[in-house]
Design goal:
Number of helices: 3
Distance between the termini: 11 Å
Helix content: 25-40%
Strand order of the largest sheet: 1-2-4-3
Radius of gyration: 12 Å
Shape: globular
């Protein structure tokens, strides 16, 4: 699957996320569900996962974003 950064999330609602930082990413391509399963197996937390047609939008912490290279 392919992904790119949609928005850098700086939410004032959740202070932890605000200070640690997170990204909103878009995932598409062959089997994005497999990508999400691989993230889960590597302890990469994804949240606010939403499907829109053939694309998935989700949040990921900055720290975990750098782990995606291994996946």
């Amino acid at each position: 699957p392919s992904f790119y950064i949609i928005d850098r999330g700086d939410s004032v609602i959740d202070q932890f996320q605000y200070f640690s930082g997170f990204l909103r990413i878009k995932v598409w391509g062959f089997s994005p569900e497999r990508f999400m399963n691989l993230c889960s197996n590597k302890d990469v937390l994804l949240w606010n996962i939403r499907r829109e047609g053939e694309h998935y939008f989700m949040n990921i912490s900055l720290r975990n974003f750098y782990k995606l290279r291994q996946i």
